[in-house]
Amino acid sequence: MDASMLLRRAGYRSQLRDLLHYAYTIAVSNDMATSLQSFGASRDRMVVHYIGVPLENFPFVERESLEPRPPGARIELLQVSNFVEKKGHEYTLAAFRELLGQFPNARLTLGGDGPLRPRIEQRSADLVRSGHVRFVAS
User: Buried-most residue among 39, 41, 130, 132 (CB within 10 A)?
Assistant: First the structure.
């Protein structure tokens, strides 16, 4: 669970105030830094460390439509994330099953690890056996 969710809990905020009187803090954005300051974090003992992706390194590329596709055209899909509830792997699998009805040469690669990976692997076992889904460790 990330800090933005935890800050909604009164008990967490109370404990956080005590900690922030002496702790050094790393925030992932200026917004988070400002929010933490409102709970007592000192800007003098805070570093903002951005963990996002520098978008200038990934220029926009016009994507081709899935339709019309030549017969037998392969579609490669990739999801890289922790196997936790909020990443929606269940929805990915459900959507992928529907996509296979229209594009039987589609392939899905799921990269990452986490507590839900065994459950997702089990739910997609038929797709793995048929070669439509593969799992890779991050």
Answer: 41
Domain assignment present for 126: yes
Percentage of the chain modeled with pLDDT above 70: 96
Q: Which domain holds residue 40?
A: 3-48
pTM of structure: 0.58
User: Which contacts of 114-123 are long-range, i.e. CB under 8 A and separated by 24 or more positions?
Assistant: 114/82, 114/83, 114/84, 115/83, 115/84, 116/83, 116/84, 116/85, 116/89, 117/83, 120/83, 120/89, 120/90, 120/93, 123/90, 123/93
3-state secondary structure 21-39: CCCCEEECCHHHHHHHHHC
Residue 98 has pLDDT above 60, yes or no: yes
CA distance 79 to 124: 14
Residues in Cβ contact with 82 at an 8 Å cutoff, skipping those fewer than 6 apart: 112, 113, 114
- Assess whether 81 and 121 both reside in one domain: yes
Q: Domain count for the chain, please give it.
A: 2
Same domain, 35 and 80: no
Assess whether 38 and 82 both reside in one domain.
no
Pairing of strands 133-136, 106-111: parallel
